[in-house]
Amino acid sequence: MGIVTRPQPVKAVIGVLTAEPGLLSTVYAELTQRLGPIDFTSELLPFTSTNYYEAEMGPDIHRQFISFKRLINAGTLAEMKLFTNTVERNFIRQKLDGEARRVNLDAGYLCLAKLVLASTKDHAHRIYLCDGIYAEITLRFYRKTFQPWEWSYPDYRLPTYIAIFNKIREIYRNQLEDAEIS
């Protein structure tokens, strides 16, 4: 019989897509009300891996990654995704053919071994959590760096993104070490 242990807290991470970078400070203000202060913000990166979001958001889409200082319980990932969906809805704009998101928020968490993202869409490599939310291990930490899987989104495979997640992991590792000392 296995012994049930409590997992370490994890680091909340959000990947933000938008064609309107001017919205980011307002979006981040909403996110921090629930998730606490941001401790890492990547540069604003051109999003060129797909044109999937252009019809909804328009051209010239950018991606930015943020992480939060306060560590969370990994079991709250579905709750976090439902919250970020609400934040997305707060920034909907009306179009002639319906509604369009102005921001897309990829909610997830990072721990020493992996980057996990939440999704509302099921797939063979995703595990159901609750309330219509699924989780996938998007990247694994192997041989001193994050590595993609065959199902990892194309942009998450980019060396620039991998470097960002390695940096966030280092921040997280230092947080864990500091917690052990105190």
DSSP summary, beta strand count? 11
Calculate the mean pLDDT score and round it: 95
Query: CATH top level?
Result: Alpha Beta
CATH topology: Alpha-Beta Plaits
Describe the overall structure:
- It is a single chain.
- The protein has one domain (10-181): Alpha-Beta Plaits.
- The longest helix is centred in the C-terminal third of the chain and has 23 residues, at 159-181.
- It has helices at 24-35, 54-57, 77-90, 159-181; strands at 10-18, 38-41, 45-46, 62-72, 93-95, 98-100, 103-110, 114-119, 127-130, 133-142, 145-148.
- It contains 4 helices and 11 strands; from the N terminus they run βαββαβαβββββββα.
- The chain is globular and about 60 Å long.
- With 182 residues, it is an alpha+beta fold.
- Strands 1, 2, 3, 4, 7, 8, 9, 10 and 11 form a 9-stranded antiparallel β-sheet that branches. The protein has a two-stranded antiparallel sheet with strand order 5-6.
